[in-house]
Amino acid sequence: MRIVFAIGRAAIAIAIVAAVVGQLNTSLAYWPTHGVTNIALSIVNFFSFFTIQSNVATVAVTAIGAYFLATNKLPNPPWFNTLYAAVATYMIVTGIVYNLLLRGIALPQGATLEWSNEILHVVGPFWMLIDWLFAPGRVAVPW
Question: Is the dihedral of CA 1, 130, 104, 22 positive or negative?
Answer without folding.
Answer: negative
